[in-house]
Amino acid sequence: MRDSRSQEPYEVGIPTEVYFGPGRVVELGTNLREREYQNVLVCTDETVAEAGILDRVEQSLRGSGLRYTIFRGVQPNPDIGTVLNGTREATDNAGKDGYDCIVGVGGGGPIDTAKAMSVALTHDGDIRDYVSYTTGQRKPITDRTLPVVAVPTVSGAGAEVSPVAVIVDEEIRVKVGFFSLRLFPVIALVDPTLMVTVPPGTTAGSGMDILAHAFDALVSRRGNLLSDTLAVGAVESVFRYLRRAVRQGDDIAARGALASASIMGLLAIYLGKGGAVHTIGEPLGTICDVPHGYACAVALPAMMRFLNQVCSRELARIYRLAGNDPPEGIDEETMAGRAVEEVETLIRDIALPSLSSIVPDPDIGELADASIRHLAVDRIPVELSRDDYVGLYGAIFSGSR
Q1: DSSP assignment of 229-295, as one string?
Q2: 133: which DSSP letter?
Q3: Could you tell me how far CA 231 lies from the centroid of its own chain?
Q4: What's the pLDDT tens digit per position in 158-211?
């Protein structure tokens, strides 16, 4: 850690109540009833329903005597259209009393969709008017916003403790963000048993999103001692447990460790205001239609190499956090290079495919243009030009991560 980090100011205001532990999904209805919620809107996707997780959620809601409506139309990389479809369906089924809260069940997509729907259901006009970035906010998100409850079934995005909903605006092919402290979930019910059915590929990509969050926090210009400390915990957990979770999905210890790492990683990037890898990962996800975690995974080694000269101390730290005891006499630059190799080995071990095998004909110019417009470009410790991004994308697609 750079000595100056201990003097960097930060503010912490995390209002989310986190309930963590295996089997705690049974407490969902009780938690909502204690807050005097009676009419509940559930936002999820078909994957959650097919895995039997939705049945467990419904059982808890029914057991507490709650009325509920389910919207299960969330797609990967959800867009504004998904939010509007869910809002229309929810409004049609609301009844005379409306809803008291909205429960997002799933990965980052359903939880972020729930947040955006909480705005759309309670605010007038075009939902795009409430976008905070990239397009610029025209109307404020107010305290009318429907309370959000998060039940994550995938470890990675950390949406369960985030005040941001990231949604694709399909009209401009850019991921936009709804940001407000009112979008912090009031409750995050984190039950590792809900994650045992997540397929290996999804587990792998989402787990790498945790590592990307932590890396972005560690190299951020605006990081601090607290964000660094959270990032360290996330990095250690990913290197220790991600391979286990990919190889044996019902390893509850690994699932639980990654669920906590997901929270640490998100809080690290949020409090440290990072985003280096995400300036590539988000355009890749939107333009090339690949999962967000996977996009960040394939971008991570390239960005690590690019920043090696100015962030060798941080990369050397990642090398040690990967479980290595540096030999006597090894220098910082060597450890930094080996950190990249550790990440590449992890990517191979969890069997993530190359990007070129999925996207054979990319428009690198369009991707670079999207990256240079990303909100986080001013948080990277060096200034990146469009040509720099063209080079980074070229390295990623050529397989020279």
Answers
A1: HHHHHHHHHHHHHHHHHHH-TT-HHHHHHHHHHHHHHHHHHHHHT--TTHHHHHHHHHHS---HHHH
A2: B
A3: 14
A4: 999 999 999 999 999 889 999 999 999 999 999 999 999 999 999 999 999 999
Please indicate, yes or no, whether residues 390 and 242 belong to a single structural domain of this protein: yes
Distance CA 173, CA 284 (A): 11
Compute the Cα dihedral for 392, 395, 398, 399 and give only its sign: negative
Q: What is the pLDDT of residues 69-97, one digit of tens each?
A: 999 999 989 999 999 999 999 999 987 67
Distance from the Cα of residue 203 to its chain's centroid: 13
- Say whether both 331 and 270 belong to one domain: yes
Do residues 371 and 265 share a domain? yes
Structure tokens at 315: 């990369």
Domain boundary among 195, 224, 243: 195
15 CB-contact burial (10 Å; exposed 0-12 / middle 13-18 / buried 19+):
exposed
Helix (H), strand (E), coil (C) string for 144-172: CCCCEEEEECCCCCCHHHCCEEEEEECCC
- Give the domain extent around 217: 198-398
Residue 176 CB neighbour total at 10 angstroms: 24
Same structural domain, 254 and 327: yes
Which of 195, 225, 250 terminates a domain? The answer is: 195
Q: Is 338 helix (H, G, I), strand (E, B) or coil?
A: helix
User: Distance between terminal CA atoms of the chain?
Assistant: 25
Q: To 5 degrees, how large is the angle CA 118–CA 112–CA 182? A: 50
CA distances from 345 to 312, 351, 360, 368 (A): 19, 10, 23, 27
Query: What single-letter DSSP state applies at residue 352?
Result: P
Exposed, middle or buried: residue 49 (CB in 10 Å: 0-12, 13-18, 19+)?
A: middle
Q: Which positions ≥6 away from 230 have C-beta within 8 Å? A: 214, 217, 264, 265, 267, 268, 271
Which residue do the tokens 């972005």 mark?
216
What count of residues does the chain have?
Answer: 401
For residue range 289-337, list pLDDT tens digits in order: 999 999 999 999 999 999 999 999 999 999 999 999 999 999 999 999 9
The partner residues of 187 in beta bridges, in order of sequence, read 17, 149
Separation of alpha carbons 127 and 120, rounded Å: 6
Q: Three-state DSSP class for 123?
A: coil
